[in-house]
Give the backbone structure.
Amino acid sequence: MTALLELSGVSKHFGGMKAVDDVSFTVRQGAICGLIGPNGAGKTTVVNLISGYLKPTAGTITLDGTNVSELRPHRLAAAGVARTYQNLQLFEESTVLENVLIGRHLSFKGRRWQMGRTRRREEAEQHEVARRLIDRVGLTDVIDADVAELSYGMRRRVEIARAMATEPRLLLLDEPTAGMNRTESDEIGELIQSINAEGVTVLLVDHNVRLVTEVCHRVVVLDWGRVLTEAGPTEVWQDERVKTAYLGSHDRHAVEAPDAGR
Amino acid sequence: MFDWLEPLTLFRLDTALILTLLVVSVHVTFRVGIMSLAPMGFAAVGGYTAAIIATKTELPFAAGLLAATVLAGVIGALFAPPVLRLRGIYMALGSLALAQAIVVLIRISDFTNGPNGIAGIPVEVKTEYLIVALAVAFVVLELGHRSHFGRAAKAVRLDERTAEGLGINVFRVRFVAFTSAAAIAGCAGALEAHRTTVISPDQYGFATLVIVFTYVLVGGNGHWAGPVLLTWGLTILRDLLQVAGSHWEDIIYGVLLVVVLLVAPNGLSDRSLYRGLRRRLRGRTSPTPPTIEEPAEKVASR
């Protein structure tokens, strides 16, 4: 299979701080790739680089053979990259449906000022797509509720539905199960797998060992802004360097045995 | 059509309608999260363009009005790139500086007759014209509000970074809003010039802007009708209480602004303000309001 996303020699320096330093890895078309590492390893910086929020200091990011290193976020969204955020970034005072509809922005075919029947038909079609996505993440019952009224786990799912609304080829999930209990994170795991089954390539950043082991095909480990290793989801935990990296950090709970959950 | 009204009432009506046009202009920028203090600069461009065309050429009023609107829009488009790079208070100051530069240029230039301004502008504005101009503005605003462009505008205002990540071209949305707001302000300035017959650089100062901002902020940016209805309501209230021009006017506005910002920091047309009310109404029509619980089994069964 071919590589959908390729990072080669990507660095991001903030002044003297090398947040990401010479990182290279590829994500194959149709895969679920895990990106793990202790706190401060540079995972979110990598996600911000891929989604265009940051420009790399050096190196290139290639999406399906095209260099996308310099593109702005909205251009990357149009190129098929969608993401969720570590600290939820939903439109709080809007309803679940409105949030997902904003994600449909790119898919509106018509002109801006179209009116009458064409506009109504297109609105109806887009509402239907949004409804299906919301149903898919299990939020049909609260479709018209303001996001601010929802629980944390439900809001994470709104974010996933909104990202899926842009019809991405590559979905970047930045800690989608942070703060969730075991049942909730298992549900997210199933959701990720079902999204992947439709052909969406996923880059999953998470601390949840159980989730990463169960859903990922490949795992990239970052430490101090560099790639420590890349391996299969079970082998990766056998690696001494990975154990040291985690045990040497503050994030000890992350290396509990896979079945301990969170 | 409005001849039966007393001249003073008619004058007040026209004042309120032109003010509404300025309110609409500022609302358009607020709608996409632009804090611009430039509208009076664009109104000056519009007013002087119309005045110069009317007094120095033979062109009809309509041509002057169109030229004023277009020129203000073009200058808005030129100002947009630098202003839209700024954020928050810096954007407000940057836009104010550019707008005041226009007013200063008008004051020192002989072409615009310097600080003395231009007199003898023919009275061309009828109340009917103002109503038509406003009606057009309202239709365009409502279409924008209902279209996906309106949704994108709201997303840009609430969180531009997230909007960007969802494929919305934030700069383009803001550019369109800023430029149209400039054109609307220019149109308002031209209409004002043709109503008062005399314009001078001093009238494009802070005083009017403060009133317009009060209406727009208190009216809220949930829907254009908020600021517009507030403008009309307060104008009527002011005339009923007969406080126009006295210090009571400023006191009432000040108190109102403070009270509203305490009760409804996002203005009166903010949806979350009515959430409680909506829920109560919903509860009355359906005995069991929709429950908000984790539908865990739904996800699991998929």
User: Anything to note?
Assistant: Residues 285-302 of chain B have pLDDT under 50 and may be disordered. The longest helix of chain B spans residues 170-196. The two ends of chain B are 66 Å apart (CA to CA). The interface with chain A takes residues 143-144, 146-149, 151-152, 154-155, 158-159, 161-170, 270-272, 275, 290-296, 298-300, 302 of chain B (CB under 8 Å).
